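Box S1 | Example of a co-folding query
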Amino acid sequence: MKKYEKNKIKEVVCNRCGKRIAVEHGIAEEEVFHVEKRWGYFSKKDMKKDSFDLCEKCYDEVTAEFVIPVETKEEIEFFPC
Ligand SMILES: [Zn+2]
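Box S1 (continued) | Returned holo structure for zinc ion
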């Protein structure tokens, strides 16, 4: 969940544990897992849009409950010439 002050993002709060992550100059001090989902016709939430943020610790704990683990790929950093 993003908290705003004077139309600027001030901090991101983890929806699961309430941890506050400060945002300086538009950049969060820690990475957060942000999700936005617009539900459609075939759901029971048609026309609704959900969003939430998780801190990295909660992301790890939530995904650890998955029956099938998250797919992870190593990414090579790309440096444009
Ligand atoms: Zn958390």
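The CA atoms of residues 1 and 52 lie 5 Å apart. The chain has one helix and six strands.
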